[in-house]
Records
---
Amino acid sequence: MLAMNYRGPFRVRAEQRPMPEILHPEDAIVRVTRTCICGSDLHLYHGMVPDTRVGSVFGHEFTGVIVETGPLVTNVKIGDQVLVPFNIACGKCNFCKQGLYGNCHESNAMATAVGSIFGYSHTAGGFDGGQAEYVRVPYANVGPTVIPADMDPDDAVLLTDVVPTGYQAAEMGGIKEGDTVVVFGAGPIGIMAARCAWFFGPSRVIIIDHIDYRLEFAKNYAQCEAYNFKSMDDPVVFIKRITDWYGADVCIDCVGCEAEGNALQTFTGKVTLMQAGSATAFQWAVNSVKKGGIVSVVGVYGPPFNFAPIGNILNKGITLRANQASVKRLLPKLIDHVQSGRLNPKGLITHRVPLQEVSDAYHIFSSKLDECIKTVLIP
Amino acid sequence: MHQDCTYTLIKTLMKTENTNIDYRQIPGWGMDIDPDNEPTYPMKNYTGDDHNRLNYERSPQQPVEIELLKSIERPVNPVVFGTTVPPSGLSGIIRRYAFKHSEDRYRHWISLILADRINAWEGIIEDLGKGVFPNILAERGIKAELKYNAAGLAKKVVVAAVVGTLLITYLAKKKK
């Protein structure tokens, strides 16, 4: 089968490899119909995630058709069109039983700090991902969800990660009616977080980034205010100024470990790897939120640690909430939002690329060429 | 009065976008408001199972038929695990060293990053061993770069050529 193959930092190619096999009685094999490149895939692509091995297949956002099932698979059957949450969750451990499907304890041998994610390095379990024609899906009774017959496949594939992560980012913010919410990052997750924030009743949603075409897109898609931090002396002062010098009620970090904007963070985090990437967005979120406010983090950070203003978290009484999205928990509500027309996930897609052209697709996304927001690969 | 003037002055210093949207008209505005969604309110569905620790029903164990590196912070392998690219070569030796140390230790992670960098060269050697000459430019997306950013690429080439020339000249002079 054809699959993406990681060859080292900034190097990927599409080539033939053996078909995946059933290795556990609860496995299924899915023939992939749609698969996306995520912003967090770029951390893998850039060599920022430890234990990313040459020969791996990336891809944690995919839909497909069940073509084979293990003997204990009962909840889906051959022929079902499914969307597969990016989390690999057993449904039986004490974390899954409490709705924390992104923190499953029975799918990742290599790190207890990380649940398991399709195609996201051995640190996240060592599973091949969905940027391929076929993929092995463990715990098929738990994750794969049959796509409603009237749902556009392009909407379905974004329900595997982008929509739930954006929604949970807003949900973790504990947004109250009338709040002012600031979202850092105008990538697909940030744009979706800004859009989903409105479900919780704020009066203002503001998005901050440094790429004009993304800010313009966010303004229209999420109906929010959008500002370019490169036009500011100090983004924190700017946010204080536009929030009556009080600070935002909620700040959401949708950037993660490759943030730009602070030379010290960039030098220590991306150049010398003295910390796990640059935590600029997190720093700004902590420093921009009001005293007693909430900082919600869905931007991906890897191990081991980052420089962060812990003193300000303490002295301002900030509540910090973070997690990988629990996709399965959120799917019923989000499917309703999509089918009711309140959310338009496929509106984020700007590029549809054949899987054979995965090298160029990654480069376009990484370098933000051709006003790329979200890329779907078609096997 | 003085306080009113101060606040007026503060507001005139605020430069924000003029947003004319009525946010209450945005589809779905406010429908997921949850007064119980307080920071201290658990986001998880609290069942008390945490106190059972690692005692819960498990699915059958996936057979371990490859070398599986395991975090020392867990006592046994998980029921299911990934099998792609087992450790091998020099990078594999370094990875095995990394997994002797806990996830709390910097030496665990920096070793894995070092292994990744070595693994990239091992990948090239593996390709050459199979008679495949990797097209590194294509793997880096040169077609897309030429199509969407030809000017940027030309600039990078010129800068690289100038820096390279200066460096070679300097080293040559130093050698004399």
Note: Chain A touches chain B through 96 residues (CB under 8 Å).
---
Amino acid sequence: MDELGDRSQDVLRADRAQPEFSRRDFLKKAAGVVLAVPAAGALVGSAAAAPRIRVGNAAQPYAGVTLQFAKAPFGNDEKDVISKLLAPFEKKTGIKVVHTIVPWTVEGATYATNYAGPNPFDVSYQTSTDLTGLGTKGVLEVLSTSKWLDSPSFASTKKKFIPNTIKKSTYQGKLYGLPCIIGGTVVYYNKDLLAKAGVKNIPANTTQLRAAAAQVMKNGGSGNWGYQVPMTNKDFNWYFQYHNIHNWGTDIISADGNSVTFTNSAQRNALQAEVNLFLKDKSAPPVGQYSRDDGVALFKAGRVAFLHDEPLRLPEFRSAKLPFKWDFVAPMAAPSGKRTIFSTTGHWVMASKSKNQAAAWELVKFLSSPAFANEFGAHYGWAPVRSDVNTSKGDPQVERINSYVLKTWDGLPTGPKMAQLTDVYGQAIEAAATGNKSVAAALVKAQKDGSAILRS
Amino acid sequence: MSAETAERAWDELTLSPAEYRRAGARYRQQRNLRAYLFVVPYFVPFLAFLVVPLFWSVWLSFNQGGLLDSAKFVGLQNWRVIGADTELTTSIKNTAIYAVEAIFLVFTLALLLALLLNRYRKGSNFFKLALYVPLLAPAVLVGLIWQFVTNYDFGLINVVLVHLGLGRVNIFGNGTTALLAIVGAEVWRGLGFWTLYFLASLQSIPEELLDAARVDGARGFQRFRRVTVPLLKPMLLFAIVIAIIANFQVFDTVYVLTQGGPYESTSTLVWFIWKRLFQFQQTGQGYAAAVLLLAIILGLTAVSFWLLGSRRRRRPREA
């Protein structure tokens, strides 16, 4: 007890020996601590963060920026393909790209509603049919300015673009998107079926194609077809007829864009050549009997001799290991010999309301560059629009497509009403190819409807 | 309490006529306020999502733009453009033909099935469920199913036709058959709903009336014609109104199956509107056509209600 008592007394004494600690002192110290701790924290934090910011500025100039990117896909694997190709870009710039798949069937509605909102896709892919329609509404950034395409820093790159692509995509002096790919169409053929039917030479023009397809119908065996091409408006039939119009030396709209030109003789001849395969020769399945995908399935099953479709079928046919020999040629020439390849042009566009336009332009430049376009174009069989882009990767078939395209490509003139005009043309093709109207009557209706569209 | 005190107390409690009116008004005001408060949860969305967009659409039908760019007043230009567009007249005609065919077919089949289910109760729950399932399927799925039904090579319709020795039909290569395919898909989808509707209507008919008719010697068809049909008429007319409204707005099946083809033969009014609004970005024309559709539906509904009303008005005289 004593020992304990002694010690307790010592403690008490020691406590008493402590200096007086007033309430004011306590408050002063507390205030000091309250102010000092965050200040010290901020100093420590900034000291730690400062070097990181400096490093980020050098290596990742857009660190923290997120871009909304949208595209209608060329294949089911496109999101993975793009993600892989964008990885180095994201690492280098610090930009995070959020990729939205926009199905082709709802493309128009999706972009219309998205661009109407306050936070549109920063970068998206637009074809020449929609490009100027959206651009003239003011939702797309005009790229043909000194800020973007005509800036001194982009001058050397701009020279690498095929001039015709820029020209075809420019409307009233304004370019709303950077051309990135050219598609095209090709005619695939089944070598075995042609051999069975006794067709020795691959046709080069529509007259020869007609004869060859008729020969397949005669000698190729029942259930087989000589020719297949998408012919319903639902399957974008006009897309597969447009080269014919160019080959016959005309277009659906005048050069100045002020009038439609559906009723000239060249236009009638072009459509009649195609319609003959369906209605006169019956070498092709009646319109409506098979959709575009059905037609491709028929070709893969060896039941179609000539299939007119896009080069993007190439990987599909290769991986399917078709049970017959096949190859492809450029779309048929007109009897005069003029042979062009048609496609709309794909463009990378920036939203005028994008809050990160500088970053968006970086993405657009990257998507257009060989670092992205070589591999992307090669994967889907697209031809390049720049001389420094090579999408073939040494593949002879893709090189052949590219050579067709680069030598003879003729695209769709862009304009705010081209989507409507191509729809009118699609209706005319459908009406003529089903036999509902004669070619001349179908085109007269197209002329009337098209003129009304241009006037409105 | 004396009688005098009680009378004075009563006078104090009794309100003067003016006070009575004020109290009454106050009560009615509070009662109305409570009623309005109950209505608010419905009325606010009704205003925000129906009334305001409706008037906004009418306004935009006189403007160019308004969705992607700012609206610019153009007077009647949009109305003139769609008025001159042959696709609009074709679309109205197609929609009307489709509606008549679809309503007639679905009502006939639904009524027959309802009569069967009403008569043969055993296992009827299974059939009710089986009939109702297509209604639960999304329109896209219905479209896909019907692509298989209508396929040229292996579709159900062509397989049956071949077995009957009639040969295959290129359903989507002909305007009439393509429209019938749309009708078929919608009938298939709506059959369950209308069967259950008519079944409920049939079951609401008093059994005594049918018994009385039976006692009077009426046979099956006579009972149906003389008792069932007259009693079903009000329900039938209401069903017609609802069916007209629904069928004039057909879109999803058209979108999936034909996209208006071949040569506009399955282009319906809503498809016409959709194309103008979203495919061509001609918003003013799209809104003008939408207002026109609204006017057509309102007109048809008014006629149907008038017919329904006139029946009701005539009934006492007939009695």
Note: The radius of gyration of chain A is 32 Å.
